[in-house]
Specification:
Elements lengths: L1 E9 L16 E10 L2 E7 H7 L5 E3 L5 E3 L1 E3 L11 H8 L4 H6 L4 H10 L2 H16 L3 E7 L6 H17 L3 E9 L10 H23 L7 E6 L6 H13 L5 E4 L7 H8 L3 E4 L5 H8 L4 E4 L2 H5 L8 H6 L4 E3 L13 H12 L3 H7 L2 H5 L18 E4 L6 H4 L6 E6 L2 E4 L4
């Protein structure tokens, strides 16, 4: 298939982007892409490519933008129920931590997810995942963390692995048993940490190697935050996960700076996520590391807060900076990366080009897939989207509508709601 007549073909070739290089879109005007057997095999201008490949099946981009599919490297995709009543409580002045301490928040979703059977979880999660896909997300990470017991955590992991085979969007699972201290261990959190290390992590490893078609271990993540897991508890869990061969991530600095970023850099975590309260010292450490700084602007927006990740400081410090949705039932029920970019430009000072790079090639690095997806380069997987506009800047300029007209996933074409 030859996709041709793109007003702007955004290749983003050259690998993940740091510092002043963030936003290097490497645009080919009137561009074209040749796809064969799920891979990109050639790139150039439409004039030369139409002559060179005159017998290929054409797909006319109609002078609209073509770019890599969005990659969402931080979601809590798999859950049951909702927390609409907590949204109302926050509007009445209750904080996230207040609600969590009163048994709401994560614990509320844990109760609903434990009660849901597998088919219910599949049904609810698939709807969310397809909505993400038709807004241009071709690959997403998906965390567990709403079970907080072996049975339900594995059920969530099973849903993620199953949907990865069922729907076009690629899903990379993450085990987040350390999302919160379950109510039954509120007075003995260290015992729950011991259970995660001694029982849950080995069970997740065995399950994943058995069910994963590629026998790839999922990520392991920890919510290092006041009211969740301390810095020492986070270290114990992540060191154990790393010893078992898991790649690791961390939730850090959402509400307080406990030192999670420094821990992530020390242990070689693939990413540190949230990063609202991150200090300049920690930002500097991130800039000298391979750990990707993942910002989640939908979360402070969803909480009605005014403080976002210090993105400009991170970019100036040469960090690998990425964006994600943090799709979850409590603070950010939004899996639309177009809206994520709109927020990042308005409240974090990114340019549209920087937001696009942070949602494609850099977010690919946040799940370790930068050599396979995230840019339009020969040999990479053919994951592309065609917009309904001729200028890439419309992505952040317009918001609240879906500007994705066509999705190409592994070389197969999907129109809006074609499934």
């Amino acid at each position: 298939m030859l996709i041709h007549s793109a007003s702007q073909l955004l290749t983003l070739d050259g690998g993940p982007q740091r510092g002043s290089h963030l936003g290097s879109l490497n645009i080919i005007p009137n561009g074209a892409v040749l796809i064969r057997e799920e891979k990109i095999v050639d790139i150039g201008t439409s004039n030369e490519m139409l002559l060179k490949y005159s017998k290929e099946q054409p797909l006319d981009a109609n002078q609209n933008v073509v770019l890599p599919g969005f990659i969402d490297p931080h979601t809590h995709l798999v859950w049951a129920g909702d927390r609409a009543e907590e949204f109302e409580m926050r509007l009445q002045g209750k904080s996230y931590l207040d609600i969590m301490a009163a048994g709401g928040g994560i614990q509320s979703t844990v109760k609903a997810t434990r009660a849901a059977d597998f088919d219910t979880l599949i049904y609810q999660t698939e709807k969310r995942a397809l909505n993400m896909f038709f807004h241009g997300t071709t690959t997403a990470e998906a965390k567990s963390g709403y079970g907080l017991d072996i049975k339900t955590e594995l059920k969530q992991m099973d849903v993620a692995f199953t949907l990865n085979e069922k729907i076009p969007m690629d899903i990379f699972p993450t085990f987040l048993g350390a999302h919160a201290i379950p109510s039954e261990y509120q007075f003995n959190p260290d015992e729950y940490v011991r259970i995660i290390c001694k029982k849950m992590l080995p069970s997740v490893k065995d399950f994943s190697l058995r069910i994963s078609p590629n026998r790839i271990l999922p990520f392991v993540d920890v919510f290092c935050e006041k009211g969740a897991f301390s810095l020492l508890q986070s270290r114990i869990i992540l060191e154990r996960a790393k010893a078992l061969g898991f790649p690791i991530k961390i939730h850090a600095d959402e509400f307080e700076n406990l030192g999670g970023v420094s821990l992530a850099v020390e242990l070689g975590a693939i990413s540190a996520d949230h990063l609202v309260k991150t200090s300049r010292v920690d930002i500097s450490a991130l800039g000298e590391s391979t750990t990707v700084a993942v910002s989640l602007p939908c979360t402070p927006f969803g909480l009605g807060e005014s403080e976002y990740s210090p993105a400009k400081n991170m970019i100036a410090a040469n960090c690998l900076f990425a964006l994600a949705s943090d799709l979850n039932p409590g603070t950010a029920w939004c899996g639309n990366m177009q809206f994520v970019m709109a927020l990042a430009c308005r409240f974090m000072g990114l340019t549209p080009a920087q937001a696009i790079a942070a949602s494609t090639i850099n977010s690919a690095a946040a799940i370790g897939q930068q050599n396979k997806i995230g840019s339009i380069e020969i040999g990479k997987q053919a994951d592309l989207i065609i917009l309904s506009v001729a200028d890439y800047r419309q992505l952040a300029y317009q918001f609240g509508i879906n500007l994705v007209e066509t999705i190409i996933k592994k070389g197969k074409v999907y129109k809006k709601q074609s499934l």
